[in-house]
Amino acid sequence: MSIPRSNAPSSAPSLLRAVATVGSFTLLSRITGFARDILIAAFLGAGAAADAFFVAFQFPNLFRRLFAEGAFAAGFVPVFSGLLEKQGRARALAFAEEAMAVLASILALFSAAMIALMPWVIPIIAPGFAETGDLGRTTELARIAFPYLFFISLVSLQSGVLNALDRFAAAAATPILLNLTLIAFLLTAVGLDGEPALFLAFGVSAAGVIQFLWMWASCRRAMAGLRFVRPRLSREVKDVLKRMLPLALGVGVYQINILVNNALATLVSAGAVSWLYFADRVNQLPLGVVGVAVGVALLPMLSRQIQAGDEAAAMGNQNRAVEISLLLTLPAAVGIAMLAGPITATLFERGAFDAADRGAVAMALAAFSFGLPAYVLVKALAPGFFGRYDTATPVKISVMALSLNVVFALILMRAFGHVGIALATSLSAWLNAGALAIVLFRRGHFRFDARLARRLPRIVLSAAIMAGALWFGLHVLHEIAGPVFGAAGVSAGPEWMRALALAGLVAVGGLVFALSALVLGAAEKSDLAQLRRRKAAPPPES
Prior knowledge:
It is a single chain. Helices cover 80% and strands 0% of the residues. The chain is mostly helical. Helix 2 runs antiparallel to helix 11, helix 3 packs antiparallel against helix 4 (89-125) and helix 18 packs antiparallel against helix 19 (418-442).
């Protein structure tokens, strides 16, 4: 039975509230993630041990990104939302149980096969380790960490169920459990004088189990508990599986780029994998908080609106998603580029992480930041295809972007080393976002509305004004306090001074952008008022 349209959240305030909910928990996740990475940098540095762990961790983590934030959500959520809209909650939950049973069977076989084949897989994803002798250690760590994929993929299914029911908080909180678990295992290794990389690998798999149990309990509290049933390829499950493989490439092009980057980085120099990892982790803060939040909140909304035939509301929400993405990521990109050195020095320069590592990470971070708005725009534009059950077009575009990323990286790494690899990723992200926007525009599924057309140039101007303020602030700080954040070959100043100076610069940059945006009309006070409203529409019922 069709639900009343008023029960399906479709307004911009609803999207803003959903983005705020997911974004706030994701921000907390990124903060705990930074705590995790700060400890890893201090105890492992950016050498061979860190390189081996990051390759071992990022391999199953690649599939986590594809399932939890991409392919599975994009294939599962529209089908689940459609059943919820047309046949009610009971049928939708029965489909979710069927999908979970089939997914668990496939994942068990895939995980077992990958663990067995790991000695042949690692040389492909880390070819440079053959010369350094790190293949054996990396293989061992990857085998220990890989079971994480099984559990986190089931978590993604449970997250899709709750997101489609407009319950975003529990799923957005799950990465926090991963970070806390890894911190606990790392500190245990230090306390027992054990090998940190080995303990971290065990911590990855343990975190998967903990996250699964958390989501299992969350679904039960939401009256959406899922049982393990006998695997059955129903028509809807076949529909999802048919979409998943191409979507894994289509939505996960950024993560595949990271895997390609790691493989190329092992050919550059020792430590290059770690430098790119730490730089990408900083870049992931706004990408995760804004990009993931926009994608997670927008897809079920667009799916319901398109199913109900309300194309005008769908286009309106997509305009707001693009506006929110640019309003938050353009200043973030500018700020990260201007403050790459201070950020790296403040977060990571201590213990085994030295001034040379700081310089290498800062340059890669600046290169990554150039593509930050594009990464988030992909998250905002892709639901325009997935909500209409179109998987072929984003896949074709992603294959093009991925291919060009490899070509750009091979060219740029010759001159710029690991920084060229980061810059290639940013260039390919802009090509991906631009192509998605052009195709949606040509099909009549996306047009700039008057509000977006009016605000976009003002957002750009506000970000430029912020850049000028940060440049002036850095100059004044250097004149007053000297090289607080270090210089080439020179260690940074005391940690408290670094943290205080960076906090001041971030505050100044944020305040200048906010004031500029309000004065120029890039944003309005009413936007903040919408985020504070807690009068959420009820979830769809049968």
